[in-house]
Here is the input.
Amino acid sequence: MKPRIWAILLAFFVLAGACLAKQAPITDDSLYNQVKIKLAGDQVVKGGGLDVDVKDGVVTLGGSVENPQQKERAEKLVKKMKGVKQVVNKITLRK
Here is the structure.
């Protein structure tokens, strides 16, 4: 009886692992939304007004910020996000 239970448990974990490992790719639309939310919610960037464009996982950031730290932080935050292949930072500094 015990070997049968172990076999069933093993089969369950193998199937569960296979299901969890198979994840759908992140779409550009989904990535766009995630980036906008991440930037808008950051206390340093305060990036609700920044422009975001996503094409094939490449995120282009635009708009303007008050200081260089905000520009650098925005790029760093986006680079760490799952699904981002590259970041093009076109953010400018306000004068």
Summary: The radius of gyration is 20 Å.
